[in-house]
Specification:
- The chain has about 80 residues and is of the alpha/beta class.
- Helix content is about 35%, strand content about 20%.
- A three-stranded parallel beta sheet has the order 1-2-3, with helices on one face.
- The chain is elongated.
């Protein structure tokens, strides 16, 4: 079984220990410290899930709409 954890380092750490004990086949997760070494089928990357073409396009779209809302009808009102 493979499990992907995103954003929950405590859970990801526990799953990595489960992999080391042979209780879980593998795990992949993002971490603030991707240099940490684990035993077994553990894949750790820096936090970069937002860094896709689609995510960046959406981020810029929201940014532009928010800036435009200062002169027109508000689209991304916070409160």
């Amino acid at each position: 079984m493979r499990i992907v954890a995103n954003g929950f380092e405590e859970v990801a750490e526990r799953m990595a220990r489960m992999v080391e004990r042979g209780e879980l086949g593998g795990v992949a997760f993002e971490s603030d410290d991707p240099s940490r070494k684990y035993k077994g089928n553990v894949f750790v990357t820096p936090k970069n899930a937002y860094y896709t073409k689609e995510a960046l396009e959406k981020m810029f779209e929201i940014w532009v709409e928010t800036m435009m809302s200062t002169t027109n009808e508000m689209k991304n009102k916070v409160n």
